[in-house]
Amino acid sequence: MSALTAEPVNFAPFFTGREVRRVEDAGLMDKVYQLRHQVYCVECHYLDVDDYPDGRERDDCDVHSSHFVALNLQGEMAGYVRLVHPDAIQTFPFQTHCVQLLEGVSLPPADKSAEISRLMVSSRYRRRRGDKVSGVTVNEEHLSDHERRVSSPQILLCMYRQMYQYSLQHDIRYWYAAMERYLANALAGMNFGFQQIGPYTDYYGPVAPFLGDLRQLEDGLSNSAPALLEWLQSPG
């Protein structure tokens, strides 16, 4: 049984910071661009830092995306993720890099779908220097008491809850995500059932496209982790 399957009465929110919410003002969005630059350009070198002289990473998908952040008690950004909606020709970012699908895969309606993108946790909240940008690792480690940091998978899960509730409100049923194997395995361990739909390719590292059906997620959690489903569906 998963560690997340405690009885509902004992189930508490994971992230103990200030809040996790959708970005709706320009000032906070500017901080998002700065965090993305720090992680994608400076730390991971996925993008050329010289292409972003103002220290802010932006792209064409931002205008048709919904953006979400996790803030700590000081209002500083602990994590970020966006849901990219289909573009004018009803396609998603992963389709420009992961062009081949596995045999038998058919894609759901674009207007019922969104792609999880730019998922990241600030380096201040990752457990070890070698942790991935999402902060998820297979083996747990204790953080030093004086740092008083929340666990990065807790931030990850809280951002997923915010995206889930947004998706319910906007009739989004399917999530795409281009993920490395470690993140797909970590999400499977948290009862998030994404199915691989294409082979691994080089897209900010070795990743494969995955597809999640929120109705299947709900059905699975109702049996395997009802407390987690109750928490996902409860107000933030």
Discrete helix count: 5
Summed over residues and divided by their number, the pLDDT gives a mean of 82
> What is the helical fraction, as a range of percent?
25-40%
Question: Pairing-aware structural class of the strands and helices?
Answer: alpha+beta
Unreliable stretches: 1-15, 135-151
**Cα end-to-end separation:** 25 Å
Q: How much β-strand is present in the residues?
A: 15-25%
Tell me the total number of β-strands: 8
* Global morphology: globular
Q: Quick one: biggest sheet?
A: 8 strands, mixed
Describe the SSE topology.
Elements: E1 19-22, H1 26-43, E2 65-71, E3 77-84, E4 113-121, H2 152-169, E5 174-179, H3 181-189, E6 195-196, E7 201-202, E8 206-213, H4 214-224, H5 226-233
Parallel strand pairs: 4-5
Antiparallel strand pairs: 1-2, 2-3, 3-4, 5-8, 6-8, 7-8
Please give a structural write-up:
- The two termini are 25 Å apart.
- Residues 1-15 and 135-151 have low confidence and may be disordered.
- 27% of the residues lie in helices and 19% in strands.
- Strands 1, 2, 3, 4, 5, 6, 7 and 8 form an eight-stranded mixed beta sheet that branches.
- It has 236 residues and is α+β, with helices and mostly antiparallel strands.
In short:
The chain is of the alpha+beta class. It contains five helices and eight strands.
Kindly list the characteristics that best describe this protein.
single chain; 236 residues; alpha+beta; 8-stranded mixed beta sheet; 5 helices; 27% helix
